Amino acid sequence: LEIAHQVQTVVLDKTGTLTEGKPVVTDVVLAKGILRNRLLKQAAAVEALSEHPLAEAIVAYAKEKEVAFEKAENLTATAGQGVEADVAGKHILAGNLKMMQERGIQLGEWEAKAVELAEAGKTPLFFAENETFLGIVALADTLKPTSKAAVDAFHQMGIEVVMLTGDNKRTAEAIARELDIQVIAEVLPQDKEREVRRLQEQGKKVAMIGDGINDAPALMRADVGVAIGAGTDVAMESADIILMKSDLMDAVTAIELSHATIRNIKENLFWAFFYNACGIPLAAGVFYPFLEWKLNPMFAAAAMSFSSAFVVGNALRLRLFRPKYAKTTTALPKEDIQKELNHKEEIGMKKVLKIEGMMCNHCTGRVEKALNDLDGVTAEVSLEGKSATVTLSKDVSDETLVQTVTDAGYEVVDIQ
Q: What is the pLDDT of residues 217-251, one digit of tens each?
């Protein structure tokens, strides 16, 4: 708290923090003479060994197109460039423009095509087989619904916002223009911490918000590290604050709350000092020789108790805290909730609530207790499945179920 209210600059990771972290393939650009299946086959084979969101999207796309691919071997990752592996005796490169240039792969006119894709906010990945360029697979990751609102809220609070990412510069700049923020792109994982330190050396108090393993050093370096609840364990261990939901508006609320808390502490210190500055001289008889003012010990004791009650009461006002910058989205679209409300639920039916934000058994226990406290509801919550299975013995609306989970501090993202 003593640091959070002083934050002047917020540094944001892109993938999974500003964006959904679930990219999809948007374009497949083939080099001359290369068949589509050949590119997807080799791309999926290599990317199947990686856990990066971009790799998972490519594999999912290949499966969707029913492209069969073999198992890759000898996977090697190069930080800030990409990966490479052997597939059926052929060496496959999968990475960014820098990897292709360093390996001497001739791109020709396709380099300009990659620039065009990047300026449209897409991430182009290059693929080569031995010395032959195969083509480009472009992917796009959508912004989270509250990212724009959160950035605007930071700006209104007078806080500078910087996006720090290892993505292609043009892709990052396209997103930065949409959000109206500064961007530092093509940053290697080990250099994120250095960029945060550079901002600190300019005399700024820096908060870093991220979710990945690559963000951990930067989270530790920042004056305030904030980890997204759906992020990696390493990121959460490195952070000072963990957001229960993957919602940037919660980071705004955390800083607002820190301001309110520090303001409350200063008020209590002022009134305690003012009270004692007046009461102690009066009790000591300083004013008696001149004004014959004196303080009965019983009144002094009562006044001291009142002082303590005043300070505690002022502190309890924090329970009434409400964020100034309200969230602009709901757990479920209003029209979907209304549709469910208009539908009479069958008694005894089961429903599955997909819940975001649960990270431990304590979380599941809290959700399970909240749901079971509802009349006519029996619930079982699964941490692994991030879901709650509820059996209804009475007519309980979806809105009630959603609100119960929300009040417990978590978010319902789907009802089945």
A: 888 898 988 888 666 677 777 778 888 777 888 88
Q: Per the structure block, which two tokens stand in for 61?
A: 């796309």
Sorted by where each begins, the domain ranges of the chain are: 24-140, 334-415
Give the DSSP per-residue string, 140-189: E-PBPTTHHHHHHHHHHTT-EEEEE-SS-HHHHHHHHHHHT-EEE-S--G
Q: For 338, left (φ over 0), alpha (ψ -120 to 50), or beta?
A: alpha
Distances (CA, A) of 271 to 147, 278, 279, 314: 40, 11, 12, 10
Catalytic residues: 13
Question: Is 284 in a helix, a strand, or coil?
Answer: helix
Class of domain 24-140: alpha beta
Indicate the DSSP class of residue 223: S
Statement: the pTM of the whole predicted model exceeds 0.90: no
Q: Classify domain 334-415 by CATH number.
A: 3.30.70.100
Separation of alpha carbons 373 and 400, rounded Å: 12
